[in-house]
């Protein structure tokens, strides 16, 4: 089953499973199930708890984070990677970005790319929050190619819930108090990728900056997954106008002092941001990246 089909395999639970395996070494499946859910092997525990634990193992296996047959399981993930949530999220993000398009788990970032592209096409991201989980799942599924490995749709209402959890953990969405859904925003991940790209204290031309982002975050403007989604939407994007979600993220990082979006004169290389009458920055032709080290 795919990552999203294992709906109980949240990133936090996968992290717990990997941390346990990294500390204890090879475990039998029964030992790992007991480790993740003490008491799950009691006769009166029922099947639900055990199935939830098995979905965690399934999600970890889908990421290639655990290996072994049904009798024994281990992980080769570096324990240093498992030290904190940020490094785990970086590792998970890298795994998902590296997946080929025919991978069953490519849907996590493919669906996000579709969301970025559809918002660019609409000129706004507000429509996202007007849809129910079923409505969003149907809209997203229509923009994705192929079926999941269980024969169903790549996106449905239950997978949408799991998908949002993964996006929040990866820094591609912001959690909101119930009953509101997570707010889609790549700001957190963008900040992490800029820090990891080791470009602190540099000034990049707008196009060079965006091409760098597209390599590290291919679901954003100019990235391969974004362009793939636009083709499915039958909508040709322009390199000179950014999507609403990326525009909002860049403005947020600008306001936080992490980057400075500059426009010098009437340069032909200006890239425009999606319209926001409340913000003074409408476009830029270069980006000054703060030299300050931040988490």
Question: What report would you give on this structure?
Answer:
There is one protein chain. The longest helix is centred in the first third of the chain and has 16 residues, at 47-62. 45% of the residues lie in helices and 6% in strands. It has 295 residues and is mostly helical. It is globular. Helix 6 crosses helix 7. Strand 1 and strand 2 (183-184) form a beta hairpin. The chain folds into three domains: 11-83, Arc Repressor Mutant, subunit A (Orthogonal Bundle); 86-184, no CATH class; 188-289, no CATH class. The strands form three sheets. A three-stranded antiparallel beta sheet has the order 3-7-4. It contains eleven helices and seven strands.
What percentage of the residues does DSSP assign to strands (E)?
A: 5-15%
The structural domain count equals 3
Question: Order of strands across the biggest sheet?
Answer: 3-7-4
Please state the average pLDDT score. 87
What's the topology here?
Elements lengths: L10 H14 L4 H8 L10 H16 L22 H13 L9 H16 L10 H10 L14 H14 L2 E2 L8 E2 L2 H10 L6 E3 H11 L7 H9 L11 H13 L2 E4 L8 E2 L10 E2 L1 E4 L6
Antiparallel strand pairs: 1-2, 3-7, 4-7, 5-6
Q: Which features characterize this protein?
A:
11 helices; 3-stranded antiparallel sheet; Arc Repressor Mutant, subunit A; mainly alpha; about 300 residues; 3 domains
